[in-house]
Amino acid sequence: MKKVNKKTFMLLMAVLCTVMLFGCSGTTDNSKEKTSTPDSSSEEIKEKQEKQVQTITIWHSADATIADTLQKQVDSLNPDVNVKFERKENMAESLKLVGNDPESAPDMYLWAHDKVGVFAEMGILSPITDFIGEEETKALIPMTLEAGKYDGQNYQLPIYYEALLFMYNKALVKEVPKTTDELLQRMKSETKDGHYVFVEQHSTSYCSAPWIQGFQGYIINESKTPGLDLPETIQALEYHKEFVPYMPADGEYNTVTTLFTEGKSEFAIGGPWLVPGLKEAKVDLGIASMPVLPNGNPLKPFSGVQGIHVLKHVGENKKGAVASVLKVLVKPEVGIALAEAANCAPANVRAYDNVAISENEMIMALREMAENVVPMPNVPEMDVMWGITDELLASINKNNGNVAEECRRCQKMALEQIEAMH
């Protein structure tokens, strides 16, 4: 072997070290580059997924059939939006706690419109117009939209509604009276021996409101003013009192329902909630238009509109998801599904083009009534009016009190209690 001199050996060693140094340095950099790239991508994917998938919680206290039907409709939003309907007992009390603990609250809730004023005053609601425009809501029955308005803002997206119905037993009735005067004459001549022509809960506010409102009176108006001593209200209650002697004295729910279910009454005014029980009892049920009062107006019941409300605490990151949910629930397909599953009257007028709905006597009666019904007052002051009006009706119908005097007494009481609220 050829001997290498010292100078050459030192030169070779220097070159070798340089090659090793740069080789190691390059390997280290490439390794860092390879390991950092997938970590960065994973974080970006995860962040993107979190932005895309939103969970929306909706509280409700509705019948399971209704909640399940709505759940199936919003499931179409998966996987981008995951909607959960959660049953909540004592809804009013739970919602009153939202201001103290927004994190425990839902994003929305399904409930009747009559508490809109209470929660709007608490500052926990957002107007639905923050999420959905006139184009999406133009097919809704005007009365249902009006029900959710408070101080010029609309706080409810209506889904379906209900009202009292004029029911009759087809097996007992040959001809349905068109007017209340006709009905009264039949009551006077045919009510005897435990048989009644007509029954209703004559001394409860909700069931007497159709008479008051038909005479163009009111219990309380949107300006929060009671109307118990109005001439129209007094006239209505004086006329209504003529019917009371020919009905059961107590006028209680169970009494009225039992008499009509057992075929001991030809006509009744009651809500859609009675229909399943009546069908189960094999009552040959008919639904007629409300009879017309002497002034030419039909009886005008309250309506209760069930719909979606949005909580104000919903963050910016969820606004798109909330809008998506509202846009699904406003569609006529939702109303059709609810009508078929639970006999609900849809808020969307286009749902009534469906053949199955157009052949449903009860739902079509409610559709006709939508032009005359009066949404229950949603002002907070209505809370005191229920009890006071019940007292007024009991004093008139059960204790034979003077109508005008009792109306003035109860109006004074209502004004005092409303003042005490403020």
Q: CATH class of the largest domain, please?
A: Alpha Beta
Strand content: 15-25%
Counting structural domains, the number is 2
The amount of helix comes to 40-55%
Report low-confidence residues grouped into runs of 5 or more.
1-38
Task: Give the N-terminus to C-terminus distance in angstroms.
Answer: 113 Å
CATH topology of the largest domain: D-Maltodextrin-Binding Protein, domain 2
The description of the largest β-sheet is: 8 strands, mixed
Q: What is the C-alpha radius of gyration, as a whole number of Å?
A: 33 Å
- Write down the overall geometry: globular
Mean pLDDT: 90
Number of strands: 14
Q: So, the CATH homologous superfamily of the largest domain?
A: Periplasmic binding protein-like II
Structure notes:
By secondary structure, the chain is an alpha/beta fold. The protein is 47% helix and 15% strand. The chain contains 17 helices and 14 strands. The strands form 3 sheets. Strands 1, 2, 3, 4, 7, 12, 13 and 14 form an 8-stranded mixed beta sheet that branches. A 4-stranded mixed beta sheet has the order 9-10-8-11. It has a two-stranded antiparallel sheet with strand order 5-6. The radius of gyration is 33 Å and the shape is globular.
Which keywords apply here?
four-stranded mixed beta sheet, 15% strand, single chain, eight-stranded mixed beta sheet, 17 helices, 2 domains, 422 residues, D-Maltodextrin-Binding Protein, domain 2, disordered N terminus, 14 strands, alpha/beta, globular
